[in-house]
From TrEMBL:
Pathway: Amino-acid biosynthesis; L-histidine biosynthesis; L-histidine from 5-phospho-alpha-D-ribose 1-diphosphate: step 6/9
Chief localization: cytoplasm
Gene3D superfamilies noted in UniProt: Imidazole glycerol phosphate dehydratase, domain 1
Reaction(s) the record says it catalyses: D-erythro-1-(imidazol-4-yl)glycerol 3-phosphate = 3-(imidazol-4-yl)-2-oxopropyl phosphate + H2O
Keyword Cytoplasm among record annotations: yes
Lineage: Bacteria, Pseudomonadati, Deferribacterota, Deferribacteres, Deferribacterales
CDD domains: IGPD
Species this chain originates from: Deferribacter autotrophicus
Protein name: Imidazoleglycerol-phosphate dehydratase
Domain of life: Bacteria
Keywords recorded for this protein, A-Z: Amino-acid biosynthesis, Cytoplasm, Histidine biosynthesis, Lyase
Length: 193
């Protein structure tokens, strides 16, 4: 079973994540940031992974530390749960419509962490959530999952819709990329690291 639990504690945050890549999309998300909880629930549901996140931190300072540390920890969980990546498809792509918004996501569990984030938000905040933290979350995730991740907004105006399309689109691309369809490593090099 491709499952991992990681706890990360710093002077700013405490994050505990349990992930089952062979789950059904069940989730228990508990952070003090309501909008972010909603995005993480969408992520788990659309990736069809089981995800438990319990996290708290210095949100009286800013949401940044908590969001970034969840991205770091979730990325590490993916990296470790995938192991040598034997049998996975490796690549995932999804084009996600959300009302007036269309977001394109491409990813590769290559063993190399990289984020291209070509997205413009038209508001600084989504409710109380700083929209710039969407990029920070996925940057931390990509670097620690060691995946190449491209997120491109083709069009869209509503910041909530844009964020939701991103989280759902990444989740759907992940669903395809982690699918086990064989028993070999999907690389002519013989390794994905």
């Amino acid at each position: 079973m491709r499952r991992k639990t990681i706890t990360r504690s710093t002077g700013e945050t405490t994050v505990e994540i349990d992930i089952n890549l062979d789950g059904n999309g069940e989730y228990e998300i508990s952070t003090p940031v309501g909008f972010f909880n909603h995005m993480l629930e969408l992520f788990a549901h659309h990736a069809k992974i089981d995800l438990k996140i319990k996290a708290d931190g210095d949100i009286d300072v800013d949401y940044h530390h908590l969001v970034e540390d969840i991205g770091i920890t979730l990325g590490k969980c993916f990296y470790e749960a995938l192991g040598d990546k034997r049998g996975i498809e490796r690549y995932g792509f999804f084009l996600l419509p959300m009302d007036e918004t269309l977001v394109e996501v491409s990813l590769d569990f290559s063993g190399r962490g990289y984020l291209n984030f070509d997205v413009e938000f038209f508001t600084e905040k989504i409710g109380e959530f700083p929209s710039e933290l969407v990029e920070e979350f996925f940057k931390a995730f990509a670097e620690n999952a060691k995946c190449t991740l491209h997120i491109v907004k083709r069009y869209g105006k509503n910041s909530h819709h844009i964020s939701e399309a991103i989280f759902k689109g990444v989740a759907r691309a992940i669903k395809f990329a982690i699918a086990k369809t064989g028993d070999t490593i999907n690389s002519t090099k013989g390794v994905l690291e």
